Amino acid sequence: STMEETDREAVATAVQRVAGMLQRPDQLDKVEQYRRREARKKASVEARLKVPSLINLSSQVMSRTFNLTGNKELKKNCLHITFREVAVTIFEYFKVVSFQLFKNNSHSCFLAFFLVLLLSCIYSLYFDFPEIVRETHDLIEQGELLQAHRKLMDLEWSRDNLMYEQYRMDSKNTHDMNLIHTYFGDMQKLSDELAKQLWMVVQRSLVTVRRDPTLLVSVLRIIDREEKIDRRMLDRKKQTGFIPPGRPKNWKEKMFNILERTVSTRIEGTQADTRESDKMWLVRHLEIIRKYVLDDLLVAKTLLDQRFPPHYDIFNRLLNMYHQALATRMQELAAEDLEANEIVSLLTWVLNTYNSAEMMGNSDLSPEVDVNSLDPLISQNVVDQLLSKYMSTLTSNIIGWLRKALETDKKDWIKETEPEADQDGYYQTTLPAIVFQMFEQNLQVAAQINEDLKTKVLLLCLQQMNSFLTRYKDEAQLYKEDHLKNRQYPQCYVQYMIAIINNCQTFKESIISLKRKYLKTEMEDTLSISHANMDATLDIIAKEGCSSLLDEVFMDLEPHLNELMTKKWLMGSNAVGTICVTVEDYFNDFAKIKKPYKKTMTLEAHRRVVVEYIRAIMLKRISFKNAEERKEGAERMIKEAEQFRFLFKKLAAGSGEDTEGLCDIIEAIAEVIKLTDPSLLYLEVSTLVSKYPDIRDDHIAALLTVRGDASRDMKQTIIETLDQGPSQPNPNYVPIFKEITVPTLTVPKLLK
Fold first, then answer.
1. What pTM value is reported for the model?
2. What is the DSSP track for 85-130?
3. How does the average pLDDT of the chain come out, rounded?
4. Structural domain harbouring 130
5. Same domain, 241 and 262
């Protein structure tokens, strides 16, 4: 029969196994050991064969329990206790019972399997798993997070212990383990749902801590509980090798990751504008960041710190997160193609605002925040690159601004309306104000960053100013040349040339003011040469301007100067009267020239009038025929010298300049012409020469020719004798005759 065949196979297998065990002589000593091992295996197999009866037994036990008189009360009580409490109580009870029932066959695997079986029975009798999952889901949706978490923990405890017992019984049995895992599959979704709610609260923790601090505390309690369970599970893993699915959850770490992402998003999300939509986009962006970060950290310190467990060190963690997020954002901004003003805004914020009382240095954040211990938001290398780019951009900007300012100013020079006057009535254009306002703005901006940059910008401004003034000089010269082509144009040439001259004085004062305000005393020497160059250029512009204005005067005087020392003049021409009126009329305009230049201009006008008058004498247009003509001519010269003296004294009023010496030359020449005794002529001429030693022989010859009574021999004798005479010039005398050329007789002249 089949039974007999099975027995024979069993015996054959057994014989084969025994033969395998006893192949060597030394194995005979282990016979007893082999016998005990086989007995244990036999007992294990028998225990497994008794499972159906155990199931039946446990069902009967539970059924009988519920059929007891107090079963309703028991059911009622069960509603008020957790599954874990029930399970633990029954587990302890059945451990004792199982020990008593099977003390003759107490193998651990058998006991473990029996326990799993009992827990399964308890669960199926007392609970409806899908119902608990639904309840937990509803609690999560209602925001009852603590209660939801309590239920979730109970479910996880059940699953984890069942899996643990299965693992202990047979760690390689993945099929049964997967069955348990599948049965409790919805639990992972619940855990994820709960986590999602927790992270939403964590994301809004800075708001929640003010509006609903209890909710935040609940979330933190849940995270803390999970951390403890994680630690417990990891400890058990070290001892047994078993860890439930989904562990460790690491919710604390995830919470900090969520906070970190939230902080980064908050920083990045503050940029509302772009350069295209708003030129001040970066300033606004940085100001919003400053306000948000300060507000958030104040909330974190005053409120959040009280709600989080102390060992979370939440304020310092958040401080570090904000610092890192800001460093990342600032590095991103630094890498963009920033304009010069944007570079300044960024560097000012990074190097100054960040550590100031407006932000991290706020007194309400101390002592927790120590600005000296904060790492730089961007590296020195990046700062240097930005500064280099700023200086390069600023250089080209300044060159462009100065060029544009000069072009704009030149357009004013050809206007038909007079330039504006300052409060003292001096003509000016807006050029110096525009240039120095631009310098000032850039220096103020640079000063926000640091002293070193401020000095560099000042040096740059003055360096560019030097080049600019050379262009200004060239343009003023072209202006004069264009006017000379057509003196009717521009209509207000004189007034605008006065404004150009005055601008030179304004530029000088502005350079001094700028250096005094922005340059350290020890740096003065580095700019002394540059400053001297600029002053020299400005003096040249002013001097050439004044000279061109005097040219203007003397072009108008030319017909009247041509009348001097002619027959018409001798007969009573009013040429000098007209000259004086014309000069005075021009000087009414010249009153709008600032003092240092006006004073120079008055002296130069006086000098040029005298030079032109003496030149008229030396041109030998007239030769007096007799003593009466000489007397009349000389007296006229003395009278006209007095007219000039009066005019220029009036024009130089208040300047304190002694200008009478120039007119004395005319009078001294008049005395030579007036002399009635020819024998005294040498003495008179020698007196003239000793006073004015730059008088040349040709000047004396011309003067004697005008006198009209000196022979060629007399002229020769006087000139030769004079060469040996001593000179006694006035120490203040500025040579005047060297400017005057005496025409030599040409052939055409002789023919006439």
1. 0.67
2. HHHHHHHHHHHHHHHHHTGGG--HHHHHHHHHHHHHHHHHHH--HH
3. 85
4. 122-249
5. no
